[in-house]
C-alpha cells in the first residue's frame, strides 16, 4: 500500500502496477525490463520504488519521472535478488 495515498502497489513478473483504491482503476504500469521480478520496496514518501529481479538487476523508479526505471543496477551479476529494502533516511 502507498504510505500517503489510497493506492495499491502490486508487482507482476514483468511490471509494477499502481491502482487507485477510490477510483477502482489502474493509475500507472511501470515497465522494469526484467523478465522475472522477485521483490519490491516502496520509499516512505511514496515517490520512489525499488524492484529486484531473478536476473540480478535492481531497478529504481521515480514515480514523478517516467514509467521506465530511473536507474538500473546489476550489483550481483547474474545471481538472483530475493529481497530489496529502502533505508528510512
Molecular structure report:
The protein is 0% helix and 43% strand. The chain is built from no helices and seven strands. The protein is globular. The two termini are 20 Å apart.
Spatial sequence of strands, sheet with the most strands: 4-5-6-7
- Which outline best applies? globular
Q: What order do the SSEs take from the amino end to the carboxyl end, as H and E?
A: EEEEEEE
Put simply, the count of helices is 0
Strand content: 35-45%
Q: Could you tell me how far the N terminus lies from the C terminus, measured between alpha carbons in angstroms?
A: 20 Å
Largest sheet: 4 strands, antiparallel
Mean pLDDT: 88
Fraction in helix: under 10%
Counting helices, strands and paired strands, the structural category is mainly beta
Question: Any idea what the radius of gyration is?
Answer: 13 Å
The count of DSSP E runs of length 2 or more, i.e. the number of strands, is: 7
Low-confidence segments: none
In short:
The chain has 89 residues and is mainly beta.
In terms of topology, how is this protein built?
Blueprint: E1 7-11, E2 15-20, E3 25-31, E4 37-42, E5 48-53, E6 58-62, E7 71-73
Antiparallel strand pairs: 1-2, 2-3, 4-5, 5-6, 6-7
Question: Features of this protein?
Answer:
89 residues, 43% strand, three-stranded antiparallel β-sheet, four-stranded antiparallel β-sheet, mainly beta
